[in-house]
Design a protein that fits this description.
Blueprint: H1 9-23, E1 24-25, H2 28-33, E2 37-42, H3 52-55, E3 58-59, E4 62-67, E5 80-83, H4 91-98, E6 104-107, H5 112-115, E7 119-124, E8 127-132, H6 134-140, E9 143-144, H7 146-151, E10 153-154
Parallel strand pairs: 2-4, 2-5, 5-6, 6-7, 8-10
Antiparallel strand pairs: 1-9, 3-4, 7-8
């Protein structure tokens, strides 16, 4: 019967992360640097087994590699950084450390989008939605597909962050 349970919050977010990776236009440096697509978990791992299904998937021929949370992250090893709620107090330091590296930042905390995260999840009407900070995506060198933009809420003025 467990096969018929609705997906949990982080199952949905894991599926979204896989689709985001397929629908953004990666900066050439990000594609050339790694044979795998590395997802760094920042501030803990809220996913549990929810990331297991994407481990078997690829994005443009690149298999997923999930890097566990670490206190000292080598940002040049990350293609995507999921920055969890518990990292909120450290967000300015994290974004400053990432700088203009081609790291797709994804979060799930209110206000993260306005603070410079590229894609941020938010709940609305008991569903998971997301917003996109276009200014932050441009700074990191990412293009966002029109297909993804149609589904997203865009931030007023395209959001702040580390200009």
């Amino acid at each position: 019967m467990a096969d018929h349970l609705p997906p949990g919050e982080y199952d949905v977010k894991a599926a979204y992360i896989h689709h985001f990776a397929r629908l953004v236009q990666w900066p050439p440096a990000a594609i050339a640097d790694h044979a795998t697509l590395r997802l760094c978990l920042v501030g803990g791992d809220p996913f549990g087994h929810a990331l297991d299904p994407i481990r078997a998937e690829t994005v443009d021929g690149r298999p997923w590699e999930i890097l566990p949370p670490a206190s000292d992250i080598a940002w040049d090893r990350c293609d995507i950084a999921f920055i969890g709620r518990s990292a909120a107090p450290d967000l300015p330091r994290i974004l400053a450390a990432i700088g203009r590296r081609p790291v797709l930042t994804i979060g799930d905390t209110e206000g993260y989008g306005e603070r410079g995260i590229i894609i941020n999840f938010f709940p609305e009407n008991r569903k998971i939605h997301f917003e996109i900070n276009l200014a932050a995506s441009r700074r990191a060198g990412f293009g966002i597909s029109s297909q993804l933009l149609k589904l997203a809420r865009r931030l007023p003025g395209e959001g702040g962050g580390n200009d």
